[in-house]
Every structure is written in C-alpha cells, then in structure tokens.
From TrEMBL:
<dbReference type="Pfam" id="PF12936">
    <property type="entry name" value="Kri1_C"/>
</dbReference>
<feature type="region of interest" description="Disordered">
    <location>
        <begin position="176"/>
        <end position="238"/>
    </location>
</feature>
<feature type="domain" description="Kri1-like C-terminal">
    <location>
        <begin position="44"/>
        <end position="124"/>
    </location>
</feature>
<dbReference type="InterPro" id="IPR018034">
    <property type="entry name" value="Kri1"/>
</dbReference>
<feature type="compositionally biased region" description="Basic and acidic residues">
    <location>
        <begin position="131"/>
        <end position="141"/>
    </location>
</feature>
<feature type="compositionally biased region" description="Basic and acidic residues">
    <location>
        <begin position="1"/>
        <end position="18"/>
    </location>
</feature>
<dbReference type="InterPro" id="IPR024626">
    <property type="entry name" value="Kri1-like_C"/>
</dbReference>
<feature type="region of interest" description="Disordered">
    <location>
        <begin position="1"/>
        <end position="35"/>
    </location>
</feature>
<feature type="compositionally biased region" description="Basic and acidic residues">
    <location>
        <begin position="176"/>
        <end position="188"/>
    </location>
</feature>
<feature type="region of interest" description="Disordered">
    <location>
        <begin position="131"/>
        <end position="159"/>
    </location>
</feature>
<dbReference type="GO" id="GO:0030686">
    <property type="term" value="C:90S preribosome"/>
</dbReference>
<feature type="compositionally biased region" description="Low complexity">
    <location>
        <begin position="189"/>
        <end position="204"/>
    </location>
</feature>
<dbReference type="GO" id="GO:0000447">
    <property type="term" value="P:endonucleolytic cleavage in ITS1 to separate SSU-rRNA from 5.8S rRNA and LSU-rRNA from tricistronic rRNA transcript (SSU-rRNA, 5.8S rRNA, LSU-rRNA)"/>
</dbReference>
<dbReference type="GO" id="GO:0005730">
    <property type="term" value="C:nucleolus"/>
</dbReference>
<comment type="similarity">
    <text>Belongs to the KRI1 family.</text>
</comment>
<protein>
    <submittedName>
        <fullName>WGS project CAEQ00000000 data, annotated contig 1667</fullName>
    </submittedName>
</protein>
Length: 238
C-alpha cells in the first residue's frame, strides 16, 4: 500500500517535469529556427548587395540602356517572309514555311543563308496550305493566331498593306532620327571628342573595340556569352 501511495505522489511530479522538459525543447527548437532564418536573410541581403554592385556587362539601344547580361548582335533575317505574311498567316502556316529553329539567335550568318535557301526552294516547289478554320491539336483554334483577316476584300487588303508599309517607314525614320540624336549626345557628353577618336585610344578589354580600315570606322567585337531573346509572338527576325 505504501508503494502505491508513493507512486501516486511521484507520478504527477514526473509528469510535470516531463512537460517542462518538452516545453524547453520546443523553445530551443523555435530559437534555432529563428536563428537559421536570420542567417538566411543576412546571406540573401549580402548576395543582393553584391549583385547590384556588379559592373554592367553590355549596353543596348545605342548605349542608352545598360544591362548586367551579355548580348551579342544578331543580323535581322525574315527568311523571305513579308510583313503582310507575318501578320496575316496563322502560326501553323508560318511554322510550316519557316520552322522556329531557323530563328535561333546562336546561328551564324552562314546558317541563316542556308536556311533562307531552303525556304526559297520550299516556296518554288510549293507547300501545302491548310485553312485556318481547321483546328489543330497543337495550336487549338488556329484562326485566332492570325493578327488580321486573310479573307478580306482585295481593295481593303491593298489599303491595309499600304498603311502597314507607311507605318514601318515612319518607324524606321524615327529610329534613324533617335540614333542620330543619341550619337550627338554622346559626342557632347565626351567634350566634343568624336567616337572614332575615343575608340582609337581606348584600352583593350571586355566589350572592346578594334579600329577598322581607313575610311571605314571602328568595328565592335561581339562579346561572348548567352544570347537573350525577346519573348515576342511573331517570328519576324528583327
């Protein structure tokens, strides 16, 4: 009987001690978790600070836009596609004529010329045209991928084509004006020293320039690295 009484008197104490020990463990676990989170936040802030302190690797749009990624210039290529075809044809028809792998930015001018010859041969032989009303498992409702109605009246189509070409002509003119203004601004920012003179005396290094032949002007070396692609829907090469 005495042993039973002792066990009944000691059991609550043991339970209380166990509960206190468990609470202590939970508190230590919470403190460890908070400490780990604190270290992770400090590491992330340090990496962000280092990232924003990186030197710019390249510039775009005539030097007006700086970027921390390397770009290389890619010659525009439309692979015989006119502006009207790119806007009026659906995605299925465009990919049948010029597959998307032709537009990979890492391809060399030799590869582009080879693909262009293939497209020209495909045009001469004639390729199968599929009506946009036929749905596709890959593209779904193909007719929605065309930006204009290809079945418009002839007079309306001629007027639309003229408007498109006039808009493109204005865009090219504005781009030439903007590039000329940027060149003048660059000369003024560099105390009136022309770019060709600054290139001739510039130190060699990353994103370097080499002086061209007499009367030609400086030529920019294409930096090595990954190529960034714009995420446009159409595959117009520009």
């Amino acid at each position: 009987m005495e042993e039973v009484r002792e066990s009944t008197t000691t059991n609550p104490r043991e339970r209380i001690e166990r509960m206190m020990q468990q609470q202590g463990r939970k508190k230590s676990d919470r403190s460890d978790t908070a400490e780990v989170l604190h270290h992770l936040q400090e590491s992330l802030q340090q990496k962000e600070k280092e990232y924003w302190q990186l030197h710019h690797e390249s510039t775009l749009d005539g030097g007006s836009l700086k970027t921390r990624f390397k770009y290389r210039e890619v010659a525009p290529e439309n692979f015989t596609l006119s502006v009207e075809e790119i806007l009026a044809q659906d995605d299925r028809q465009l990919n049948m004529l010029v597959p998307m792998n032709c537009y990979a930015a890492y391809l060399t001018p030799v590869d582009n010329r080879r693909d262009r010859i293939k497209v020209e041969k495909r045009r001469r032989r004639g390729f199968r045209e599929i009506d946009s009303s036929r749905s596709s498992r890959r593209y779904g409702d193909v007719s929605k991928t065309a930006l204009v109605d290809p079945n418009m009246e002839e007079e309306e189509g001629v007027k639309w084509s003229q408007n498109v070409r006039a808009s493109l002509r204005r865009l090219h003119e504005d781009a030439n004006i903007d590039s000329g203004e940027r060149r003048r601004d660059n000369v003024e920012r560099n105390n009136g020293v022309p770019a060709a003179v600054r290139v001739a005396v510039a130190p060699r290094g990353r994103g370097e320039y080499r002086q061209g032949n007499e009367g030609v002007g400086p030529k920019k070396l294409r930096p090595e690295g990954k190529v960034k692609l714009s995420g446009g829907k159409r595959r117009h090469g520009e």
